[in-house]
What does this fold into?
Amino acid sequence: MAAGAPVDQCDAEGWTPLLAAAHHGVLEIVEYLLSTGAAVDAAGIDGETALLKATEAGHVAVVETLLAAGATVDGKSRRGWTPLMAAAYSGRVDLIERLLASGAAVDARDELGPTALVRAAGNGYVDAVRVLLAHGAEVDAPDNDGVTALIAASVKGHREVVRTLISAGADVNASSAVGWTPLLTASAGGFSEVVALLLDRGADLDVQGVNQMTALMLAAVNDNPETVALLLNRGADRDLRNVEKETALDIAAFWEHEDVLEVFAMAASGASSDASAAVVDAAEDTP
It folds into this structure.
């Protein structure tokens, strides 16, 4: 700098000294560059600003400094990624609160459509979800494929996130563009406690989604006997057929899922295996 180097010179990828310092969290250099007139919103060829890079890396002090210097809080990368989305994706509640306090748009979307809430929910960050909801995040805002925060949380079995979203009014029967509902995704993954919670809150037990597959069929094809037992206990229709005209039992038999077949046999006889009964009881007793 003393020799006259331009403060905003950049390399072939658009990295300026400020971007590099922010990315690595070197606060003293960030402060110095800003004091010499560095462009606070300069972006690399990926469109990411210093604020976005600092947020992605979790450098709180650098984020504070950049915001104080007037950084655009909703500056987007080329794919539409904002600092708030980055903070939500990693579950950084401290950064989420700071960005929202600076006016970040809580329901901004990237090019794929997910909001910060969908990102936080999908990664299981319940505290981040609560903060976003408290700041007015739209609970059922879908991404470009129709995936809501509740669907994103259910597909990975994030029970506390699911519970929080339902309490905030999330639609338990929301459907993605291709027909995935929270119950279908949770059943496919074998997340029995989430399945029980969704059913307790009014999820459609026999909804048919992709290829007319039901929750029972998805649990059967993915060899989830505990979830199969729970769904049968709740009264799932075992006679429904998918586009291949198969029932859930047909599917289990084709794939030779012995534990699932045992559950069906026990249910048909009016009995239940000890293991399946224990899981059903545990799921249904979940607060």
About this structure: The domain at 13-72 is CATH 1.25.40.20 (Serine Threonine Protein Phosphatase 5, Tetratricopeptide repeat). Residues 18 and 33 are 6 Å apart (CA to CA). The radius of gyration is 24 Å. The mean pLDDT is 94.
